[in-house]
# Entry
Amino acid sequence: MRKKVYLIIEIILAAVIVALCFYIYVLISTPIKFENDRKVREAAVIEKLKDIRTAERQFKSKYQRFTSDFDTLIYFVRNETMEGERKIVDEDDSVAMAQLKKMKKKNVEKFTYSIRDSLFKHLTDKQIEELRYVPYTDNKREFILEAGILNTESKVTIPTVECRAPYIMFLDTVLYRQEVINLVDNEINTRNRYPGLKFGSMEAGNNEAGNWE
# Structure
């Protein structure tokens, strides 16, 4: 009888030890997995933010303002053109330069280029259409995009733009619920930063800087 009791106790103790070992493993491994997963997801979000920023800068260059409408921005990328300038001849070519001078021509010519073919060759048409969607959201969540005009204290008006994706939008809040809560709390209350990834600002002109830079 005693042997049976001891055996049962040993089995229970073994089960408790296994459970404790598993609990400790989860405690140690979960934050590590979260950091690795976070880096991968952040990298994907940043790449899209960079493409959106490139599109917004080109849009502003043509229209002297930014846009807060993704339909407008995507149409612009896919269909519109820009004007640029380039040298006609190599300025080290004295003969060619002399001929230009004789013809009373400047060594510069204007040309038109496609925004789609020049700046977004690395993206497919489908990827351009999906610029608005935050990675790891199954194309269900869009970046928050704002644009406007800021009046400075020196009475200068400057176009502003801000595009952002909060952490809770693209990090796994089911598997890493507590880790995400801790991250957001740290960004807001300790670092006084936006709890996510973004570029630009609606409150100040910052050359469309990204908070990951």
Q: What stands out?
A: Residues 38-80+116-200 form one domain. DSSP finds seven helices and five strands in the chain.
